Amino acid sequence: MEQYLTLCRHIMENGVEKGDRTGTGTKSVFGYQMRFDLAEGFPLLTTKKTAFRLVVSELLWFIKGDTNVKSLIEANNHIWDDWAFEKWVKSDDYTGPDMTDFGRRAANDPVFKAIVDEQMEIFCSKIVENAQFAADFGDLGPVYGRQWRSWPAKNGETIDQLQKVIEQLKTNPDSRRHIITAWNPAEVDDMALPPCHAFMQFYVANGKLSCQLYQRSADVFLGVPFNIASYALLTHLIAKECDLEVGEFVHTLGDAHLYANHMEQVETQLARTPRSLPTLSLSNEKESIFDYEIEDISIEGYDPLPGIKAPIAV
Question: Which of the following is catalytic: 8, 124, 196, 211?
């Protein structure tokens, strides 16, 4: 994954300091592209451990068209919790300790972090145990899964972009219209987080399927390793259903940034030497991308260096 480390170095050396929505501050570059030959191994970062199980459960959540954190929490995946939690603590229903700016405050105050963790545990329990609470506070609005599987059409019906692209790949692989977009201007303001990985296009040549992703905003330390693995996995899953080999994953970034409170972690990672890439294993019993469960997807030969913790900017 030297491509990823090169991106980190590029931002450290050439990025400009910018403010941002979270108030954390970033070092940023605009317009960057990485290419990964998926035949050379599965692009899961080895210079720090990346939780592949979380990548899988999140992608399957998108594929199923789900937008509520309930199923993610039940799968012990908490990467979207903060946005749903924020919805709860800003509501009139919340009566606990003040959670204003909880992300940054917790990162700098261990005592406050313990309070946040306690409230987060209460929140997750309520989401799983109380259907009405999950409906009120677990739904993130029309985020990725809604746009991929149920894009609202002007006639009142919906468009299943993912299913349509798969059908097109099978029947007209040379088309230049194999496109899925998550950026819906009519609904973006209703989303807990507007889509960062916003637009993808698939391409078939020499019996191989490639995918190019345009990502408008890229949290390079925390988010991008997940994004690379997620869309590489999506490419593998679609290729398998369409009886194609895998080609490249091309990752095009708009605003690629490192948060100011991730700089030490990036330096630690850049001092490490990458290890061999793992391989992906998919169940042969599944014929459709829509049939996969977490246990049907695994990684083999993954020997990463230890994980590096960093706070998330909400």
Answer: 196
